[in-house]
Design a protein that fits this description.
The protein has about 270 residues and is α+β, with helices and mostly antiparallel strands. Helix content is about 45%, strand content about 15%. It folds into two domains: about 5-75, 2-Layer Sandwich (Phosphorylase Kinase, domain 1); about 80-270, Aminoglycoside 3'-phosphotransferase, Chain: A, domain 2 (Alpha-Beta Complex), CATH 3.90.1200. The termini are far apart.
Length: about 270
């Protein structure tokens, strides 16, 4: 048993079975005992308590501070499943996304935690510096960056909300009672809601169904929103390409170059 699992056993008692839950941080665990199942995490953000209170993540059962300063949170472990790609067109997804983006409580908490709003200008500055530093000189990247810069005046948005920033179908969980949750909030930011909306629509929903999905969300599809959607989708594709470039994963890198070509073609097609 790892050291982390040892001290978790000390917190809960040795009658609990502790197993790693996976994830990027390696600090999440499942605990089971006599039919009880908990999801444990070390040093979760205080943001988790607000997400739980809002019913966006599974209920927070308890929080404990350790002598070394670490904070352990325990949530009910869901009996349910991750959403499949085809489920993302559901009205329940649109409604929960709307609830998240409209939540004043979530926004106030992120502000108290010191999060500064992301703006298109600051994003472009950061990615331009990163591309130069990483010697990414593929023509698709240059074309994508030029287009993103050109579109800057058209993607400004006064609406700043809490964005999850990773609305992959694997992060949506639905229980046996059809209660939907969105988990894994480590990358949450204050930004244009088109960050979440665009990624969700582009990768999961046929464009002919965008208007209907947005109607359930509470928005009308207009030219300004469409421009922002494609802007953030292209930005996300560039970010993914950079990730695999840094990892020296040439296969995935080429896949994302292909995605960038397709997104660029879509954007160009809108103006022809």
């Amino acid at each position: 048993m790892k050291l982390e699992e040892n001290w978790l056993e000390q917190v809960l008692g040795n009658e609990w079975k502790i197993t790693p839950a996976g994830g990027a941080t390696g600090e999440a665990y499942f605990a089971t005992c006599d039919g009880q199942e908990l999801f444990l995490k070390r040093n979760s953000s205080p943001f988790l308590a607000v997400l739980s209170a809002e019913g966006i993540v599974p209920k927070l059962v308890w929080t404990r501070r350790m002598e070394n300063g670490d904070v352990i949170t325990a949530q009910h472990r869901l009996i349910g499943r991750e959403l499949k790609s085809k489920d993302m067109n559901g009205q329940n997804v649109a409604e929960l996304m709307k609830k998240i983006h409209r939540s004043k409580e979530l926004l106030d908490m992120l502000k108290r935690l010191g999060k500064q709003p992301l703006t298109p200008n600051s994003i472009i500055e950061d990615i331009q510096q990163a591309v130069a530093l990483e010697n990414l000189d593929e023509p698709e990247i240059t074309e994508a960056l030029n287009l993103l810069v050109k579109q800057l005046p058209n993607v400004q948005c006064n609406e700043q909300v809490v964005c999850h920033c990773d609305v992959n179908h694997n992060n949506w969980l639905i229980t046996e009672n059809n209660q939907l949750y969105l988990i894994d909030w480590d990358g949450a930011m204050i930004a244009d809601p088109a960050i979440d909306i665009g990624i969700l629509l582009y990768w999961y929903i046929d464009e002919t169904d965008w208007k209907e999905w947005l109607k359930a969300y509470g928005l009308e599809l207009n030219e300004h929103l469409l421009t922002r959607i494609y802007w953030y989708v292209l930005l996300q594709a560039l970010t993914s390409l950079r990730l695999y470039h840094v990892k020296n994963n040439e296969k995935e890198k080429q896949i994302w170059i292909g995605h960038i070509r397709m997104i660029l073609a879509k954007i160009k097609g809108r103006y022809e």
